[in-house]
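ok so i was messing around last nite and threw this chain in just to see what happens. nothing serious, just curious
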Amino acid sequence: MKRRYICALTIIIVILIVGLHQKDVTLFKFAEKEQYVIEIESEPEEKNYYNVYNGKVDGKKVLLYIPKKYEKLTYKDKIKAKAKFNEPQKARNSGCFDYSLYLKSKKICGTIKVEEIINITKAKNIPIINKIQKSIKENFKENLKEKNANLAIRVTFR
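result:
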């Protein structure tokens, strides 16, 4: 009898969590602070004013925007920075691109724009696969036109 109640309670809790997830209710909010310790998880993607990285803060994935005035970071570097966390906005018009769903599909909880880097801890042991990827990307950039190189990099390293 007791087992039946536990099973029913478990099913109710699972249905509740799935329902909240479908309604996009966030149970766990990202801690908003002024300073973050961020681990770099990718090579930079260069934009007009920022270098964009995949990063991790407290085990959660984020997109990291660092102004170009700072040195480029590499895989597994850690930084302590004054920054601002932004949750992605949902589509304002139905049927239009939904940035929040796009990031959610990549398991990214939001973006962080760095205002000031306080400290950089360089990675000591970079996995060999990342060195190979970096070498291939540099080879594309040296031997192809910029548009073609960027396309080749995106297709190769999705």
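not much to say yet. Residues 31-124 form a domain with the OB fold (Dihydrolipoamide Acetyltransferase, E2P) fold (CATH 2.40.50.960).
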